[in-house]
Structures are given as C-alpha cells and as structure tokens.
Amino acid sequence: MNLPKTLPLAAISVASSLLLTGCFSSGAPSASEGKRIRVAMMQPPRSALSPLSDDAFKLSRWSTAETLVTLDKDGDAQPALATKWRRTGDKTWNFTIRQGVEFHDGSALTAQAVVRSLNAATRAAPKPRILDGVDMKVKASGGSTVAVTTAEADPLVPQRLSSPQLSILAAKAYRGKTVSPVGAGTGAFVLKKVNGTTSATLDRNADYWGGKAKAAGIDVTFVPDGAARAAALRSGDADIVEAVPVSQAALLDEGQISEVPMPRTNTLYLNTEHGPFADPALRAAARRAIDAKALVKGVYENRADVARGLLGPALPWAAKERDGRTKTAKAGDPGGRSITIGTFTDRAELPEVATVLQQQLRDAGFKVKLEVREYANIESDALKGKFDAFILSRATVLDSGDPAAYLHSDFAGDGSFNISQLNDETVDGAVRKAEATAAGDARRAAILKAETAILNTDAAIPMLHERVIQGDATDVVGSAKDPRERELVTNETYVK
C-alpha cells in the first residue's frame, strides 16, 4: 500500500487501520498475564526468517533467538548463552556454555547443539556476512565447552559470535537446506507462527533462563509503507513502530518518538571499475558537487547528522580521533557525461535523496538518470556494478559491533558487498591490518587509517548519518532504543 504524504491525517489513519486490522491479536489477557505487544515492522522477511540471512535481526529484536555473546553499548563482548571465554592460542578460543538453558521445544542447550548451529552457518551459501573471509571450525571440547578455531588469528571471535546470524537453535530448526526458527530458539519469546511476509506471532517463554517476560507475547505485522506504520501508532493499532520516516515524525506527539544516533551512513557509492567514475577526477567532481547540509535540512528535516566520514556519531571514538583525508584528487570537468544513479524505495527518504542529488550533480555538469526500485529487485544489479552510482543507507557495525567487517565487505577487493567495485592495494592493506589488530585503542586507530584510505579513493561519498526514529505508544514501558537494531522487545518490555 503506497500512501502519499499529502493524504489527510484521517485518511492515512483509516488506511492504516484497514491494513493492520486482523493482523494483531485482539485478545485481552488478565492483568497478571500482561498484555500482548503489537509491533509494526518495516521490512518483511526475505528468507522465511532464516537466521543465516538478514532476517536474523528480526529474531533478535523479538528476543526469540539468542547468541553465545552480546555486545554492550561500547561494542565490548558480554556473556549470553556462553558464560565466559578465553583465548587458548592465536587461532583458538574456548567458550563455556551456560547450563540449565532449554530450547523452546524442551531440548537442552549443549555444546553439541552450539556446534551444530555454528557449523550450519559456516557451511551456508552464501555465508553470513560476519563470516565473510573467515574460515572457522567449531567442535565440542568437553560437555560444556566449545572450541572455535580460525584459519588465521582473529582477535574478534567473541564479537563475531554476537551476530544474530550466528544464533543458536534447536536441532528441529535444521531440515535439509532450510533453517526454520519456529519454536527453536532460547529467548524470552517463542516464535509460534509466521504468515509469510504478512505477520508473525510470538508467545511468552515461561521458562526463559533470563527471567519471565513481562508481556504475554508479541504480535508482529510487516508494514513496508512508512506512513502506514506511523498512522498505526496514531490510531492505536500498534504499540511499537519500527523506523518512523522523518516525514512522519512531525505528525506524532514528541512523547511518542525517540531519536538515537545510528551507526548507519547514507552513502553514494561510485562505480570505480567502469563508466565515468572509473576516472578519479570525475569521482572528485561528484564529491565536490554534493551538499550534504541541504540533504540533512531538506530531506531529513534536521533529524540526521552531516557526515565527516564513513563512521558517525554513534561511534564517539571515530568522531574524536579521525585523522581526515590525506590526499585529494583534483576534480575534473564532467562535461555533460551521463550517469545513472540507483537506489531503493524501502527506506522512504532515499528516493528523495536521489532527487536532490540528481539536481546537485546536474548543476555540476553531469547528465543524471535515476533508477529506483524495491531493494529486493535492485540489490543484485548494484552488486554487479550495473549502475554508475548507488545510494545506500548502510549500517557500519551491524554484525560484530566493530566496523572492520563493514570496511572489508564494502571496500576490500574481495568484499562480498563491494558496490563500488573497488580494487585498491592501499585500501586492502589498511583493512587487513585493522582486522588483524587486537581489540582496543590500537584497533580503533587502524580502523580510522583504513577509513581514510577509502575516503582518499572517492569510491564512496558519505553524506549523512541517520538516527533511529522509533515510535512507542505512551503506555509502552521498557522498549529498547538500540542503535545497532538488535534489540526492540525484551523480557522487560510491556504495555501498561
């Protein structure tokens, strides 16, 4: 359902009600049971909620599937299904598995269960992003210990194992080539039913090891249209709304929205392999043409931050310590060269960003064509380098809490998400050094050097850093405001 911004508020509310009615449970449990929480989410499942895909982050946000490790606000590893870990050599880490935990089907969490889930991830095709370029072997080492060995020394193994794509599930989840999380997690809520790309139902796990959830369950509906999601909150059809578009935030009461700086950067990726932007001078011309302040003010209504680099204010150490650009290519004359910019509709602001950039680049002397589709229908063409430029809203620490994996995936010559088709020895070397450096100040310094090397190529032009805009009804208590988009409803979340 596509609802234009110009629809009257009442019309949007009615449309939203029609969209959401019947998707949420209308049951009224007793006060002692707690109410169910109705959640409107932006993106429907793309891979039937397989934890080996990006759908894993939905399972994490619903507190149904869990990992060995979680991350604190600084990105440091903390215990979850593993209670402790230690490095026993350059390439091996031992994890002690939490005792007394049961999967939702009643089977026990054991070292062998952990091995099964992690090995399924290592054998997946394609592999989860967090394992991009990582050769990892997992085996049980005693009844409650799991040994994780990598082909190369990897200082970030604990952080990698925090990725929702490495969730630990019961044996029933693994059938042939498919992985189904229904009734197979360990978290505070049991995934009971998935209705394709429409809705999902979760019930409280009364035996949750981390403490009984305060809510009776979660009723999820998938609402790609941002105006409809916001209208659901206004009309009372949803309790929590994910990713409120900037254009809708002003229509909500201030007490209903929360803004948190995200590790997410709105970036223009330039095709360095072929086409006009294979010329560094034209990449520099594009960079000089872009007025990010105009985007923040005009498209994001000042609910975003102008980018100074790829890594934004959600990583305070990056903003504080960045060295900046060390060399700058001389800008060339576009001379009327034609370029095609691609982007997608799933994030409401991106088509508007594309329109503004089109005009800015035209003013600089380019001829600009836009191609805008749904993300599922455009991603493969972007990865194959079929566009001269591509606008992407990209999470920079989504998987490990550490941006080195993002820098590798997006900018290394062998990166799996290298939309810019970049193949630069200096960048590759800087990224490899950052990946090999132990966690801490030295690693952060190496990451910033890699960022500088990437910025020097003008393969990617960071424009702005987004903020999470989450909508909560006024009677919602304890929903997570997570910049990494891993948490949303926890066992402490409830509706009054």
UniProtKB/TrEMBL annotation:
One Pfam family in the UniProt entry: SBP_bac_5
Signal found in the keyword field: yes
Range of residues in the leader sequence: 1-31
Domain Solute-binding protein family: residue ranges: 78-415
Molecular function terms from GO: peptide transmembrane transporter activity
UniProt cross-references to PROSITE patterns, sorted A to Z: PROKAR_LIPOPROTEIN (PS51257)
CC annotations in GO: ATP-binding cassette (ABC) transporter complex; periplasmic space
Keyword Secreted: no
Gene3D superfamilies: Dipeptide-binding Protein, Domain 3, Periplasmic binding protein-like II
Domain of life from the UniProt record: Bacteria
One of the protein's GO biological processes: peptide transport
Keywords: Signal
Alphabetized PANTHER family for the sequence: MONOACYL PHOSPHATIDYLINOSITOL TETRAMANNOSIDE-BINDING PROTEIN LPQW-RELATED (PTHR30290:SF65), PERIPLASMIC BINDING COMPONENT OF ABC TRANSPORTER (PTHR30290)
Protein name as it appears in the record: Putative ABC-type dipeptide/oligopeptide transport system
